[in-house]
């Protein structure tokens, strides 16, 4: 079933991107463009993603940092 008619993105594709770590409609959009044209599919994408399906969202709900701080020392060493 198509979720995004504008770009021909299916529900299976959205689920695959979610399994690969996309937790928000914006991350899904970055992965496959769904939701970036008319926007009518964004609520469907939100429904597919569901609540609590993302580990970083669970951390944020508990007030903990959701993303790791950038390792500036590692970046400087690589340069």
SS elements, strand count: 2
SSE pattern, N- to C-terminal: EEHHHHH
Specify the helix fraction band.
40-55%
Largest sheet: 2 strands, antiparallel
Report on the structure:
- With 79 residues, the protein is mostly helical.
- It is built from five helices and two strands.
- The protein is 49% helix and 6% strand.
- Strands 1-2 form a two-stranded antiparallel sheet.
- Residues 70-74 have low confidence and may be disordered.
Quick recap of the structure?
This protein is mainly alpha-helical and 79 residues long. It contains 5 helices and 2 strands.
Secondary structure layout:
Elements: E1 2-4, E2 9-10, H1 11-19, H2 25-32, H3 42-49, H4 55-61, H5 72-78
Antiparallel strand pairs: 1-2
């Amino acid at each position: 079933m198509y979720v995004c008619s504008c770009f021909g993105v299916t529900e299976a594709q959205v689920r695959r991107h979610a399994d690969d770590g996309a937790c928000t409609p914006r991350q899904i959009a970055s992965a496959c463009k769904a939701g970036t044209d008319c926007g009518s599919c964004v609520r469907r994408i939100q429904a597919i993603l569901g609540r609590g399906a993302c580990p970083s969202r669970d951390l944020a709900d508990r007030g903990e940092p959701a993303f790791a701080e950038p390792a500036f020392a590692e970046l400087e060493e690589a340069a």
